[in-house]
Write a structure and sequence with these properties.
single chain; 316 residues; mainly alpha; MetI-like fold; 15 helices; membrane; transport; transmembrane; BP-dependent_transpt_permease; transmembrane helix
Length: 316
């Protein structure tokens, strides 16, 4: 009788623990649910999300149906055509080229470069900062000297020189050139946070239990600074749109026959275009403003969602 009672008690305790874990798992919302609830609570961010997703899909798909070489051919009969006509929705530029088609293809090029630059530079910068901040000592010292050397270089001038000496370059080449220089800010930010995280108790406990350094870095420290990473990546994406736009505006971005937001805004260099032919540059300028504001709203929501997810994980 006593043995049967003990077995029954053990089974009951096991079942109770299992049921408790299942109830906690059901009660704990997933990361996707947390993000969605944050978006529903923030109406401007929801609108910004639809704007960003819808616009990116529109320009990526729409550009597939546009013959870029034919679009960039000069048509003197359509010289500065007025906007809101059947042939030219947003008017034509000084070469008689459709501003609407240039805006679609140029947006695809500029956004594509910004996405590629954000992925490459942020990935490298995050890894560099995590490794430098975690190992500290001579490793950190050596990696920071490389960082200091890169920071001493005149970044804009170096990019202009590289673009000038490369005979034939495209958006991929330009993205790789940008990536050489635009990882420093992310690495410095991640390093400073990793230095603080590496002194906490959970890192010491993992080291004591024999967990490898790489698992501690990428499975424990990196998830705990995810909110910082998310905010930095979203702000970097908005900044990287401006990087390509600025250099193309100066004439050192994409080639002249490759439309981009920067080459379209460069039409404002002519005073006549600013006042009389405003449709040649104003749509691109408004697009950049709307995109950057929308990305900022989305980044704030993702940060709050990451913070809430981390608090939920700490509570569990």
């Amino acid at each position: 009788m006593a043995e049967n009672f003990e077995q029954h008690s053990d089974v009951s305790a096991t079942d109770l623990a299992r049921l408790t874990q299942e109830a906690q798992a059901e009660a704990t919302p997933s990361t996707a649910k947390i993000i969605w609830s944050e978006f529903k609570a923030d109406k401007p961010a929801m609108v910004a999300l639809f704007i960003i997703v819808g616009f990116i899909l529109f320009v990526m798909i729409g550009a597939l149906f546009i013959n870029t070489p034919k679009m960039m051919e000069t048509n003197i009969m359509a010289y500065f055509n007025q906007p809101f006509t059947s042939d030219f929705w947003l008017g034509a530029d000084s070469g008689g080229r459709s501003v609407a088609k240039q805006l679609i293809v140029g947006s695809r090029n500029s956004i594509g470069i910004a996405i590629g630059l954000t992925i490459i530079s942020s990935t490298f910068g995050i890894c560099w900062g995590l490794i430098s901040g975690y190992f500290n000592g001579y490793i950190d010292w050596g990696m920071q000297r490389v960082y200091d050397f890169m920071m001493m270089l005149p970044m804009t001038m170096m990019i202009i020189v590289l673009v000038t000496i490369i005979p034939h370059y495209n958006s991929v080449t330009l993205t790789l050139i940008f990536s050489i220089f635009y990882w420093e800010g992310t690495s410095r930010l991640i390093r400073s946070r990793t230095l603080a995280e590496s002194e906490k108790d959970y890192v010491a406990a993992s080291k004591t239990s024999g967990t490898s350094n790489w698992k501690i870095i990428f499975r424990e420290i990196m998830p705990n600074i995810s909110s910082l990473i998310i905010v930095d990546c979203t702000l970097s994406f908005a900044e990287n749109i401006g990087v390509e736009t600025g250099l193309s505006y100066l004439g050192f971005g994409l080639p002249s026959q490759t439309p981009s937001l920067g080459t379209m805004i460069a039409n404002a260099n002519d005073p006549n275009n600013i006042t009389q032919y405003w449709w040649t540059w104003l749509p691109a300028a408004l697009e950049i403003i709307i995109l950057c504001l929308s990305i900022s709203y989305i980044g704030q929501v993702l940060r709050r969602a990451a913070d809430a997810s981390q608090r939920q994980g700490a509570a569990d």
